[in-house]
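Sequence of HTH tetR-type domain-containing protein (Vibrio superstes NBRC 103154).
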Amino acid sequence: MVKDEIAGRLEIAFSQHGFAQMSVAELKVASGVSLRTLYRYYPSKESMVIGALEHRHQRYLGVLDNESIPDGVDGVLAIFDTLARWMSTDAPNGCLSMNAFSAYPNNDEVHAAVQQHKEQLVQLFAQRSARPDLAMALFLIHEGVSLAWPTMGEQAVVSAKDMIRKLLR
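Predicted 3D structure, token representation.
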């Protein structure tokens, strides 16, 4: 449980302050544990990034993969409503995965964590849309919203939902 709590706190710290600005000393404070405990679970800053990304991935998929949301057009539109809430509360600075990818472009572990996250989103769109042939297109619309959110806000979601209605009907 301690490792997961640390990962959650690291996720928040990286989301709020970015990857470059956070020193290990600041991450220790943000995690709320001793440096020894932090290093026991995450022996490097890169492993802290990976832990934060994995924690974020599980939280995000948990939010999106709501059993009460129907499959089909309405289900995909609901995902974008959820994305809007997520971006406004949890990711106002954009996609944490892509921010990590930009901050660590040559780190294979960061790249693999981001890749896994994105592939699972494509799979979710294939399932929820009931149109596996359009899963990549829906994923790219999702990514566009995530990228545009810091400057466009809610308008990015409104435009995305218009495109989705045209694509799926």
